[in-house]
Amino acid sequence: MTLSTSHRQPLADEVTAKLRQMIHSGEWPLDQRIPAEPELMQGLGVSRGTLREAIRALAHSGMLEVRRGDGTYVRATSEMSGAARRMYQDHSDEHILEVRLGLDTQAARLAARNATADDVAALRAVLATREVAWNAGDVEGWARADWHFHARVAQATGNPLLHELYVSFGDVFHQDLLKQQRKGRLDGLTYEGHGALVDAIEAHDADAAVASVNQNLNTCAEWLRA
Questions:
Q1: Residue 226 scores a pLDDT above 90
Q2: Average per-residue pLDDT in the chain?
Q3: What CA–CA distance (Å, rounded) separates 91 from 138?
Q4: pLDDT tens per residue, range 113-126
Q5: 161 near 145, Cβ under 8 Å?
Q6: Which of 19-28, 51-60, 86-95 has the lowest mean pLDDT?
Q7: Burial level of 208, CB count in 10 A (0-12/13-18/19+)?
Q8: Residues in domain HTH gntR-type (predicted)?
Q9: Are 156 and 201 in contact (CB under 8 A)?
């Protein structure tokens, strides 16, 4: 964890970059508390003031949350996902669904154009995991697999920027799924937007892929209004 002796950037910026890398790499897992100040100060060889400046910067970006008397927790793995998490707290379920509509339809369209046979096989495997979790009453596992499915569709687009943008909303959409499930009356194994989407992607039918997403999200919108 030792920092370099380079003076090409302010020390606080260098510490911030090091902490960011440790979060992004998974060395500090999501929702876990990071080491205490004395341990970090010793490991990084910096003062308390420099360390706190770096932590404040990452807290401002949404990657860390400082809880007085408890410690500092990892809340996002990148600034982009941290911003998405903060925005989620300030916007309605309908606004989030509208954002998903834009992302999901574009991902479906591009995946239908560019997905490989390996992509299709991976998507079907994730849906199988999702079904097993739902039938077992494992709501967390179901929500995780459902989110992984949509992220995997984004990966199948062949557009790394779209995939990164989609993944940045991972925590937001995962929590939204859990919120929907807790309200009850949710069909956790809908074919629309999932099985139908994979069929359309496999057939390289962009129109059918987009239609399946629209049908799925319109159903979600009706459910939210109800």
A1: no
A2: 83
A3: 28
A4: 999 999 999 999 99
A5: no
A6: 86-95
A7: middle
A8: 9-77
A9: yes
